[in-house]
Amino acid sequence: MKKIFLVLFLMCAFNAAAEPKIDYSKSYYVSSTAATEQYAIFGSFDGNIRLIDAQTSDIILLDNAHKKPVISISVTGEGRYMASAGQDDVIIIWDLEKLKEIKRIVKPGMGVRAVVLSKNGEKLYIAYPSVIYEYETKNYVNTGLYEGYKNGIYSISVNKKGNILAAGSKNGDIYITDLEKGEITDTYSAGRQLIMSLDFADDKDILISGGYDNTVRIYNVGKSRPIKEFSLFKDAVKSVQLNKSGTLAAIGSSDGTAVIYNISTGQVKGQTISEDGEVTSLSAPKSMKFIVYGKGTAFQEERYGVISYPDKKGVFRKLYSMQESDIIISERGYLTGRGSFGEYISSYSHGNKESMQDIMEKYFRQDKLRVNLD
User: Fold this and answer.
1) Are 116 and 158 in contact (CB under 8 A)?
2) Among the four 81, 220, 257, 258, which has the fewest Cβ within 10 Å?
């Protein structure tokens, strides 16, 4: 009996030492995501936005972005511009090349639900509970007002051509708006529960939806019946995204699942279900070379962002963030990243409260600060 106890004790000690220990007392949770071919983008409950370089893991903090949680982020097709919307009813347009704010649009008390930029960046659409505003980004003049969404708007997406807008409602309806005619031309019935996420493919007018009925539906625009629907999940589908051709879908669920699904074959290409916590939001660039998602809500102890690489088995990085510091734990078992490390954090394997400088000097070689995925 003593021998068995000793073995169990040693196993527990080894596992405890192997797992990174982070102080979660001031961590935020990821409330929205987006992705360009260069950046994984995390919008947080604290109102800040963090851009993570997908190759180097360098962290760029856009602080003081919003005073309340960032609930929606959209990027243009080439990744030059970004729009963010917060629960503070502030919409911000960003230049990602210059890393600076361009414009703020504020409509107090309107209750912004979602924001989307057209692929070419010429138009901005802002969804409120029952109306969608259109802005021309050249001079930010309000050029359109779309109404008739009777059951509330919770998600929106615009096709690459910029002539069709889809809006998801609280009762499962998807409203198809012809932006040239300025009217709703069709309504798809996608279950009877809230539609959380919508996305168009680039090459074809294929639309994907996900919502509270745990089901993903895929439509050919112009046909109200889905060409495919499936339910792989035990809880709500929080986020859906299509690749450029509409053959692959990145999907995140409240049951903790994040997958890339091959629509043609019905096979799961990449999957991560190994950790507890909801997927709060999920995104991917149209190439699907990586997936970005948040894990853990405000009520769960462990909260972090993940960058997962489906073509490189087991390769991922976690972003842990406190109010004044960020830290990346890579798949290779060392720390990297950029941030303000004024406060003390728990060290990688020893659980001691140490500064970032102490951690780097004691436990990590400087030549390992750049992540190598090959």
Assistant:
1) yes
2) 220
d(CA 189, CA 175) in angstroms, rounded, equals: 9
Do residues 295 and 254 make contact, with C-beta atoms less than 8 angstroms apart? no
Structure tokens at 245: 């051709």
Note the Cα 374 to chain centre separation in Å.
25
Note whether 286 and 202 are within 8 A (CB).
yes
3 state DSSP class of 263: coil
357 three-state secondary structure: helix
CA distance 359 to 346: 9
Q: Give the whole-angstrom CA distance, residue 274 versus residue 33.
A: 20
Per-position DSSP letters for 201-212, written without gaps between them: -SSS-EEEEEET
Question: Minimal CA–CA distance to 348: which of 337, 361, 335?
Answer: 335
Q: Which of 199, 266, 206 is nearest to 232 (CA)?
A: 266
Tokens 């709060």 correspond to what residue? 280
H or E element at residue 126:
strand 123-127
Two structure tokens written together for 21: 């220990």
pLDDT in tens, 142-194: 999 999 998 899 999 999 999 999 999 999 999 999 999 999 999 998 888 99
Tell me the range of 10-19, 45-54, 118-127 where mean pLDDT is highest: 118-127
How far apart CA 332 and CA 316 sit, in angstroms, is 9
